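Example 3.2
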Amino acid sequence: MKLYGGIDLHSNNCVIALLDEEDRVVYQKRLGNDLDYLQEQLAPYRADIQGLVVESTFNWYWLVDGLMAAGYRVHLANTAAIQQYAGLKYSDDGHDARWLAHLLRLGLLPEGYIYPKETRAVRDLLRTRSQLVRQRTSQVLSIENLVARNLGLALNGNEVKRLTLEAVQELLPDPRLALAVASSLVVVQTLDDLIGLLERQVLEAVRLEPAFQVLLSIPGVGRVLALTIMLETGDIRRFPGEGTLPLTAAVWAASG
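Structure, written as tokens:
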């Protein structure tokens, strides 16, 4: 008997449903997010399970990795694309899990990309770097605006980064304004140190693949941004053709 599984994953629990070839429910239960217990529940059906679909918006790594390591064929549902079927399914979790299994059985499941575990940590490190870059930019703009409002001076980003705490005291005699600027300046300097640390860790961990070397010929794209694009792209064969690569989003994310 062939079985098809759907797992509707939430923050602290999930609903698992197994359907046979006639869409009959063989197993359905809400379980806590405990990998060992989930595998224990699936074990009696393991030989018959043709595939398991996981639907989650944010917390699927542990489950997908664990099930794949245990030998299951795992699919990640594309939650955005699956909305086209929203009018055909019920809204409670049990029906959602069964619907996932049903789509898998019919070969109609819109699938998401399961990013390789071995390079996922480096990609997430670069995402953290991008967040820090945006935070740094916000602090620099805050300093520029405060100085412009109070002194009528137009400082650019590089001038702000060259400021010292002593220079801030001379520039802004009012101690409260000086404290405001100095506070943002300390944050900028701290973020600079963290961004540099993350970049060094990334450059030690991964190298730009030959297929992505051409990115370095684009003005403004250095090694870190090129690596960000490469890691966000993943296996380029997963895209059907030109015009579908997420380069614009990756560039925006990395540039801050």
